[in-house]
What we know:
Elements: E1 2-7, E2 11-19, E3 25-33, H1 40-57, E4 67-72, E5 74-77, E6 80-84, H2 94-102, E7 112-117, H3 118-129, E8 138-143, E9 147-153, E10 156-157, H4 189-192, H5 194-204, H6 213-219, H7 224-248, E11 252-256, H8 269-276, E12 285-287, H9 294-304
This protein binds zinc ion.
Amino acid sequence: MYLGIDIGGTKTEMCLISSFKDKLEIVFRDRRPTQADNTFTGYFDRLRELLRKNLDKNKISAAQIQSIGVGLPGAVQHSKMVQGSIPFLKGIDLQEAFSAWISPLVPNFSGSFNFENDANCFVLAEYLFGAGKNQTNIVGITLGTGVGGGIIINGKLYAGSRGGAAELGHIEVIKNGRECYCGNFGCAEQYLSGKALEFFYNSHSSGNVQVTAHEIFQLSSKNEIASKVVSEYRKILARFLADVINMLDPSLIVLGGGVSSEKQIYSGLNELVKDSSFIKPAPPIVQNELGGSAGVIGAAYLGFNERGFV
Ligand SMILES: [Zn+2]
């Protein structure tokens, strides 16, 4: 059985998959907040409890796990996240950390470990089992707590020479814009993530209540600030997508992350993108089909087909 773990800025999702062959056989899927225990030990202890609870519930022995695949919110080189948004996971030897993590459940675990950027896991799953099933060149973009990207070229995941390909969230979209944790200014992540949307709305609104990205979309038909924030968001997104298309010319762009489930962003988006695309029309830009679980399915798949897809 293949264990997948998708570590996002807000939540960590886990799933166990028994087969990828004819169809996806998901044994269980569960999640917990990432930041609730923002220390290395606390995080790994609670993550182990999550696994133990689900194994018990499904009457599965931990020894049946043959691989552990982990998606991380950053650039991954071998078994290290060299750049990323969760400080306590940055720079550590992940293989060592996850070996120690699984050992109380499976002493001398002999299965494989695979680590990959989370948006790469997302696009891999959508390419194999979701919206990109019948395509060969697609780009996946996650608009969640952060903004991530993944590229499939000729049916293969393109991770780059140092694991840093498709870091689309750190492409500059606004000159001298908001400072990003990566050290640059005006990165896509500072304008197109759900968090960014919330920042722009809440900093313009006089209310004391912090409004979520989903609520901002709901408010946008009746509230002037929400309407402006959403309209600006769509414009920046369109220009950003056009840049991605001009560089890679994919046959499909699949969106993931919380903001991707807001239907409003798709209406007229293709027309907006077309205006800035060199070749017209722009390719279809669609919502993912696997929902919030694409990343964790892609992570589990890493163990099934250990980089055989590259
Ligand atoms: Zn950045």
